[in-house]
From TrEMBL:
This is DNA topoisomerase type IA zn finger domain-containing protein. Residues 234-273 form the DNA topoisomerase type IA zn finger domain. GO terms for molecular function: DNA binding; DNA topoisomerase activity. The lineage of its organism: Bacteria, Pseudomonadati, Pseudomonadota, Gammaproteobacteria, Vibrionales. SUPFAM superfamilies: Zinc beta-ribbon.
C-alpha cells in the first residue's frame, strides 16, 4: 500500500464519531426523504476528513507546495479533443439515471477531496490524490455509477497518482454488483493497468474496521462474477467483445502469448495464458 493511501487511512481514523451521522434524517422504505441533509452529511464528513489530513500532513515534505482544497471544478473534464468513449458513457448514464441525478449539474461540481499542485499541470508528480466519497447509508446504485465514472476519468486523463472511492456505510458486496454493472455495460474505464492505482475503501461506521483494496484486487477476488477465468467462449468479461490470442511485441513480456480484447484500444482487458 502506498504512503498516499496510508495517509488517507490515518486521516480517516481521526474523523470524530459526530461526523458519521446527522440526527433526524428520515427514511421511507430505505430511502432518504431529506436529500439536503444527505448532502450536508457528506459535506461535513469530508470537511472533517480534509482538516485531519491537513493537520497530519501539512508539515510533511511529501506535500510541500501542494494544496489541500475543494477548489478545482469538474468542468476541467471537458476537452478540446474529447474522448468519444467518455462522451458516450456520459450520454448513456445521463439517459439512464438523469431523472435521479442531474449529470449536467454534477459534471460541473467540485470533487470531494484532492491534493494537487496545479490543475493546469497534469504531470503525475503534481497530481497526488483525488477522492470520491459516499457517507449516506442509503447511497444509490446511480450515485455509485457516476462516482466510478469520474474516478476512471481522473486516474486516466489527469494522471493522479491515486484515485480513491471512499465508501462509508456501504456494503462491499452491494458495491461490487454496481461495479459489475458499470463494467459489463462497457462504460469508460481507461487503461486497465490503472486499476492498480484506484483504491476502494470500505468502512461500515465509526469504530469499525477499514478494508482497503485496489480495483484490480476486487476484480480478481470476485473473478467468478466478472468472468475473468471463463475464457472458453473467448468473450471479454469487461465489454463482451471477442478475446483473441496475441503475442507481446515489446517489454519484459516480449514473445509471450496472452489473451487480448479485440475492442482495443477502447477496452484494454488482457489475460495471461496459464
Amino acid at each position: 500500500m502506498t504512503k498516499l493511501i496510508n495517509d488517507v487511512l490515518n486521516a480517516l481514523e481521526c474523523v470524530d464519531r459526530d461526523y458519521y451521522s446527522i440526527p433526524d434524517i428520515s427514511f421511507d422504505n430505505g430511502k432518504l426523504i431529506d436529500n439536503e441533509k444527505t448532502r450536508n452529511l457528506e459535506r461535513r464528513f469530508m470537511q472533517a476528513f480534509s482538516t485531519e489530513f491537513s493537520i497530519l500532513n501539512r508539515s510533511s515534505s511529501s506535500y510541500k507546495d501542494f494544496k489541500f482544497d475543494f477548489e478545482v471544478p469538474k468542468k476541467f473534464m471537458w476537452y478540446d479533443n474529447p474522448d468519444l468513449n467518455i462522451r458516450r458513457t456520459w450520454e448513456e448514464l445521463n439517459n439512464r439515471i438523469g431523472k435521479e441525478i442531474d449529470m449536467h449539474d454534477y459534471w460541473e461540481k467540485i470533487p470531494d477531496f484532492l491534493v494537487h499542485s496545479c490543475h493546469d499541470d497534469k504531470s503525475s508528480e503534481n497530481q497526488k490524490i483525488i477522492i470520491e466519497a459516499k457517507v449516506n447509508p442509503s447511497s444509490s446504485r446511480n450515485e455509485a455509477l457516476k462516482d466510478i465514472f469520474h474516478i476512471f476519468i481522473y486516474t486516466n486523463k489527469y494522471n493522479f497518482q491515486c484515485g480513491v472511492i471512499m465508501l462509508i456505510h456501504t456494503e462491499k458486496d452491494k458495491w461490487v454488483k454496481w461495479l459489475l454493472e458499470y463494467m459489463t455495460n462497457n462504460y469508460y474505464h481507461g487503461n486497465r493497468d490503472n486499476f492498480r492505482k484506484i483504491y476502494v475503501i470500505f468502512k461500515k461506521g465509526y469504530g469499525e474496521d477499514t478494508e482497503t483494496f485496489t480495483l484490480d484486487e476486487i476484480i480478481k477476488e470476485y473473478h467468478s462474477i466478472f468472468g475473468i477465468n471463463d475464457l472458453d467462449n473467448k468473450k471479454c468479461p469487461l465489454c463482451g467483445s471477442k478475446m483473441v490470442k496475441r503475442t507481446a511485441q515489446r517489454g519484459r513480456s516480449a514473445g509471450s502469448d496472452f489473451f487480448g480484447c479485440t475492442n482495443y484500444p477502447r477496452c484494454s482487458f488482457t489475460r495471461n495464458i496459464t
